[in-house]
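Model: You mentioned two targets. I'll fold them one after the other.
Researcher: Yes, keep them separate.
Model: Target one:
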Amino acid sequence: MSSKKDVQKVLQQITLLQNRNKTLEKQKTKKMKKMLQNVINRYKILDDTIKAQLGGNKKQTTTKQKKKRKKVIKKNKEKKKLKKKKK
């Protein structure tokens, strides 16, 4: 009987250690991802500044920024039309 309990305790400890190991690995991968993203962002900024200094393409606008700009332009056109109609 005691051997059965001992085996169960050992199995519980093994599962606890495995779970702990998994969480540590996840934390390490998250840290590595953050570090890599920081390095990538740093090089993007350097690349953009070099392009700007050389007179090349500056930072490219994202599709989200383009959509936002289109909305603003559209609203401004509508406002102009309303002003013309009021006159």
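Model: Target two:
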Amino acid sequence: MNSATANKSLWQQITGDINCVFERDPAARTRFEVAVTYPGVHAVTIHRVSHRLWRNNWRLAARWLSAIGRFISNVDIHPGARIGERFFIDHGACVVIGETAIVGNDVTLYHGVTLGGTSWNKGKRHPTLDDGVLVGAGAKVLGNITIGKNARVGANSVVVQDVPDGCTVVGIPGKVVKVREAGQVNPYGIDLDHHLIPDPVSKVMGCLMERIDALEAALGAKALTAQADFQCDPDNEICESDCKSAVAANQ
């Protein structure tokens, strides 16, 4: 979160959060509906207040307010987490954001996302999400890593390493499967179409099947060659017996 975000008024930040939901969620009909019925908005609004308390060393009050927000919205955001403008938590269920996490502007999280730590170190131990990042449902982003601008994390992925700008990662652990082309922009702001994301497991399985087919074809050709090499004289019973034994041994 940059200094410009920190200096904005609470009302400006909350208004930005509501507006971004109305713009990104096709199910949203009015801004009033978003403000009163979206648990993700409630969680972010409460965090905006608790984070101000945290920054002013009202730590117990901040944690108490954060606990209330978790009870209301089922979203657990530590008051120490730094969150940028226009932050959208879609569906607002079972999302966890750790104390030292940093979230940029225009970031979207779906339900079940964890921005967690991998160390008991009291320093920076949670991830940083740059501007425009989108994290799919159930994904886990763990440790002091950075997810680059406009990157996407596929549903149920586990990311434990840095992700470059504009890349899509899927799998456990997360692997880069797609890089956004320069200048490519989605007019709707969100482009996590999972049916269009390359499937690395399916690709590997396809390669293995092709290899198996090639090996089977090679073995079949070898067997035919072996049979051709041991042609017997039908009038010689001893030769015929020896040839059959040789062919059987080469199959």
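Researcher: Noted. Anything on target two?
Model: The chain has two domains: 3-192, 203-250.
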